[in-house]
Amino acid sequence: MGTLGRREMLSLFALCLAASAVSAQNVAQFDKAFASSAYSIENFGAARAANRGSGYWCSAGSHDAAKSVTWTGVLNVRRKAVGVKINWAYGPGQVKVLVSSDGGNFEEAVCWRSSSRADVSYEETIMFDSPSMVKSLTISMKAPLSWGYFGINDVTLLSSGDENFMLVNGRTSGDSERCLVASGSTLGVAGCLDAVAAGDGREVFSLSGERLVHVASGLCASPLNAESKTVSFHDCASAARIDDGRFSWQLNSNGQLTSRGSGASCLVVVGNEVVLNDCDDATRTPDASDKFSLVAVPELNLDSARAARMGAELLSAAVDRQRHALSHLETLLPSLATCKFGAFVRQNATATLKTSLALNGRGAHASSAVRKNLGQDLAVLAMGKVYENIGADVRGSLQLIRDSAALIASAETKMARSA
What is the rounded (10 degree) CA torsion for 221, 225, 228, 233? Predict the structure, then answer.
């Protein structure tokens, strides 16, 4: 075997670092994709490369050497990424990677680089210079090689290991998904929409090493001892002083969340509680109550929830003042027609009425739409839960607008009759 040169040694070292980094990362598949060129949209469209095993994307071929062809993958939820893994079907002569945190504005994550492989098909891991928030990722290719095409079997995003997430249980309650939450000082379960709407981060966790951390409080989850069936939250600093594995958690390949500190014990949702049971017994549960899936939470901003609650308080105060003014106007209504400023009131009442009726019409339409889609549109349902949790009486506010418009209309009618 010949001696490796300095360049070959550096390349081998870089590959080892990349492989080590990849093994420590989570991977994310793209939810949809599109490309600037396709041999056949039906059989070789961009979506083929978004999912492993669904075929591959292939460009139309006969490309100008200086012009680039792009493949873009889009995520439903932003992820913090450190790189991308590309399984080439037809490798390019040159490639660069761009990322976007909002799906519209892209920046260069990796500049143009020449292919280091002469093979037609191979896997390549491209690490970013620094972690990036990614909603969309574009792979630009140019300088086609002798085969004349660009092609990708599949693309996976390498997400950072320090991401926040929700743990969604495999067992649903009616049509609602349920998530693990911090319920006081213990680990509990609640409807995912209810937990998100609360706005206090009760449903957001992270895995720091092997520790399951509740992000909002910064506390670590652990059973009290090897015999305990419940999980509570403790100061993470104490975890460093305890070496019996009770603070160590692992999400295994079949979706079970296991605790090393309680032997082979797994978290299971039983009714409205979360308990630790023997993993073998938990596996035999037919309703997947022992299974969990991770749903990424890009950012946890509790300030937004606090701002929304302050806005709800202002709305409530404004509604109270408007109700008081409306009640006062009702007492003045019988004598309004004799007021010497009646003409002025009549003139301005018409404009006010038009504005109020316009608001009333939009409010009634929106309220009708909410009623129509309730139970069908999760976004609308979640919004309603948010209003309820922050104390914003949106329906009551809309009703007040309708009442105000009706009273102004009545006042205008009385003044018109007395004119």
Answer: -20
Question: 248: which residues sit within 8 A by CB, 6+ positions away?
Answer: 210, 211, 259, 260, 261
Enter the DSSP assignment of 77. E
> How is domain 164-297 classified at the CATH fold level?
Trefoil (Acidic Fibroblast Growth Factor, subunit A) (2.80.10)
Q: In whole angstroms, give the CA distance from residue 202 to residue 23.
A: 30
pTM for the model: 0.55
Spatial contact of 72 and 157, defined as CB atoms under 8 Å apart:
no
For the ranges 31-35, 158-162, 286-290, 398-402, the one whose mean pLDDT is highest = 31-35
Other beta carbons within 10 angstroms of residue 76's beta carbon come to 11
Domain ranges of the chain: 6-159, 164-297, 302-418
Mean pLDDT of 234-251: 79
The tokens for 2 are 């010949």
How far apart CA 394 and CA 360 sit, in angstroms, is 13
